[in-house]
């Protein structure tokens, strides 16, 4: 019994060790930095810079990007720049951001999340759409509440991806989600860029509701090719044009992550995205990731080891139960007598022996 107990505990320990190794190896290696903006005043000032009409409200619990006056515009910028090609990490940078906002029921430009060169703050004029100029390189995700035929807007309730121009390269119809950007209610958006797949995704929902599984807009873009090792700033901007529209920001988080080059997937097929109304195509080309293959091999090894241990354990138990040991029997010595038969030889009358 001691042998079998030892075998059982050894089996469990080995399985635990293998599973732990699988978790440690399969876990992505990442380097991330995260800031919490617009939470409290003392947490706000060191991290975020305000430009134009942007102002803190209600003791710093949230801010307004625009004022209730014509041609108002405001911008907030994350102070710390980052690079998509970081020489210290030798791997392209991905990012994720999440922010809560509201837009008053007027027909203005709405708000936009922007990536701009590191010197943009000194060049912010506050004029034009979102205070941006097509003379400067930028990437924007706009939450547009005005239909402008000059730039081919879908309607006055859409999300668009802009690359150096206000003519959106990808558009999502917010009305299809039964949402209105300038309803005045709080909305929350998630914007993610994955450097390995070169894919930008935008999601939107009412504040308090879960993050949607499917993005409202998905667009294939190589940020590394666009920015190289140039320092980039991220910010949120708004302008109201000829209206009195007020745009407010209640929370904002931004995080960076970097993956080793060996974990990059194959280049994504740009045909795998739909740039019309923000709907993805039904089929996407499957991306092969070396880490997934390695994880699969390790998982198969664990399963094989588990099967081998199980078979060995069951075989040992069965053999132990069915082994027949020779039974002891009562054996007593028996006396054996040997008697020599007596043979009498006689002669008959003729003299012949009988």
TrEMBL record:
Swiss-Prot/TrEMBL keywords: Lectin, Membrane, Signal, Transmembrane, Transmembrane helix
TM stretches of this protein: 293-315
Any one GO MF annotation of this record: carbohydrate binding
Top-level lineage group: Eukaryota
SUPFAM superfamilies per record: Concanavalin A-like lectins/glucanases
Endpoints of the signal sequence: 1-31
Location of the Legume lectin domain: 43-263
Family label: Belongs to the leguminous lectin family.
Protein name (database record): Legume lectin domain-containing protein
């Amino acid at each position: 019994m001691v042998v079998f107990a030892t075998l059982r505990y050894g089996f469990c320990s080995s399985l635990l060790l293998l599973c732990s190794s699988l978790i440690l190896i399969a876990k992505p290696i990442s380097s991330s930095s995260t800031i919490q903006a617009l939470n409290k005043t003392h947490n706000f000032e060191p991290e975020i810079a305000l430009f134009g009409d942007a102002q803190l409200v209600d003791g710093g619990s949230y801010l307004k990007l625009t004022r209730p006056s014509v041609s108002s515009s405001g911008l907030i910028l994350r102070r710390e720049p980052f690079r998509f090609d970081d020489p210290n990490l030798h791997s392209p940078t991905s990012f994720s951001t999440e922010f809560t906002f509201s837009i008053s029921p007027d027909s203005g430009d709405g708000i936009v999340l922007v990536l701009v060169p590191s010197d943009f703050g000194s060049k912010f004029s506050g004029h034009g759409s979102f205070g941006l100029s097509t003379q400067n390189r930028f990437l924007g995700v706009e939450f547009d509440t005005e239909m402008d035929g000059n730039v081919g807007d879908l309607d006055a309730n859409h999300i668009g991806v802009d690359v150096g121009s206000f003519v959106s390269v990808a558009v999502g119809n917010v009305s299809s989600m039964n949402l209105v950007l300038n309803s005045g209610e709080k909305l929350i958006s998630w914007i993610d860029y994955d450097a390995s797949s070169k894919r930008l995704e935008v999601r939107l929902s009412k504040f308090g509701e879960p993050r949607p599984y499917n993005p409202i807009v998905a667009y294939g873009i190589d940020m590394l090719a666009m920015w190289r090792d140039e320092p980039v700033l991220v910010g949120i901007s708004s302008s109201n044009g000829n209206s009195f529209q007020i745009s407010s920001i209640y929370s904002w988080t931004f995080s960076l992550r970097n993956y080793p080059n060996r974990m990059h997937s194959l280049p994504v097929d740009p045909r795998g995205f739909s740039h019309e109304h923000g709907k993805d195509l039904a089929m996407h080309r499957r991306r092969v990731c070396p880490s997934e293959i390695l994880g699969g091999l390790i998982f198969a090894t664990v399963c094989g080891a588990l099967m081998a241990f199980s078979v060995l354990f069951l075989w040992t138990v069965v053999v132990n139960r069915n082994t027949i040991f020779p039974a002891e029997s009562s054996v007593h010595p028996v006396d054996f007598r040997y008697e020599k038969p007596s043979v009498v030889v006689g002669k008959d009358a003729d003299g012949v022996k009988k």
